[in-house]
Amino acid sequence: MAAGEELFLRAKGRTFVGLTEDTEKEWRGPFCFIQAADPQLGLMKAWRIGDCDGGGDEWAEEVELTKKAVQAVNKLSPRPRFMILCGDLVHAMPGTPFRAGQEHDLKEALRGTDAAIPLLFVSGNHDLGNTPTPETVAEYCRAWGDDYFGFWVGGVRCLVLNSQLYFDASACPSLRDAQDAWLEEQLQSEARAPSRHLLVFQHIPLYLRRPDEDDDYFNMQAAIRESLIQRFKQAGVKAVFSGHYHRNAGGCFDGLDMVVSSAIGCQLGEDPHGVRVVVVTADRVIHRYHSLDQLNDRGMDEDLKQLLA
Ligand SMILES: [Fe+2]
């Protein structure tokens, strides 16, 4: 293992070194964190030339954007408690030519993150393949850490899910079942001893606009979507943070806020390259997407900062 590699492997044993229930169970007042998605090194050129399957042979633009995000996040005050990247770390699917180079360069770009801001990773469809296998999941875990795990920050319980196992587990049904049993345990543990807030992070949104929308490439299929929404609501999940859409979207229904954040990398809509600033107070979870330019020039919006004062 190369020096510094452990920085990317802190999700282990279904928890996260340094952000465990033992050390972070107690509420200690408001804090903020950064949620971002889809640096997806390689997509910008692939999209431009119209070859999203075979393209992706250049990724200098995404490297610059990722470095810009890191620089902006490092400057924030108060300091975010963590930064989480919700999937599609790279564009090249497992086993394709540009994969190793993209992963290497993303790690290099992220290495500049302030050591006091833990970096957490969520697996996306491009990281695992659209139909993940035990091998592609193992490969992901070797590179980035556990594909699903729980962690705690200042009294808030967070669950990271591998949404691809819910999207298509045809080649790894036992992995899906294992994740689902783990999820059930977590939700029940929350029911026994509720935390300050319960948050979920995954790559694929449950829905883009409304819980009853039609199935689509960018959301979860209706049956699994409805069942997860039910289980999440019952357990008191306040917000589900996602990416995948490369546009901002989402909506809050019945107290469950589905947050869909646009990309650090390639935009498929009109949003700027950016990340989401999330402020957690005693009774609310407030979030707003910030462009990388704004975050670098002026930091987070003043009204959010005030909530942290
Ligand atoms: Fe993506």
Automatic annotation (TrEMBL):
Residues 70-247 form the Calcineurin-like phosphoesterase domain. It comes from Coilia grayii. PANTHER family: METALLOPHOSPHOESTERASE, CALCINEURIN SUPERFAMILY (PTHR43143), SERINE_THREONINE-PROTEIN PHOSPHATASE CPPED1 (PTHR43143:SF1). SUPFAM superfamilies: Metallo-dependent phosphatases (SSF56300). Keywords: Cytoplasm, Hydrolase, Metal-binding. Belongs to the metallophosphoesterase superfamily. CPPED1 family. GO terms for cellular component: cytoplasm. Its cofactor is a divalent metal cation. Its main location: cytoplasm. GO terms for molecular function: metal ion binding; protein serine/threonine phosphatase activity. It catalyses: O-phospho-L-threonyl-[protein] + H2O = L-threonyl-[protein] + phosphate; O-phospho-L-seryl-[protein] + H2O = L-seryl-[protein] + phosphate. It is found in: Cytoplasm. This is Serine/threonine-protein phosphatase CPPED1. InterPro entries: Calcineurin-like_PHP, Metallo-depent_PP-like, MPP_CSTP1, STPP_CPPED1. It comes from the Eukaryota. Its EC number is 3.1.3.16.
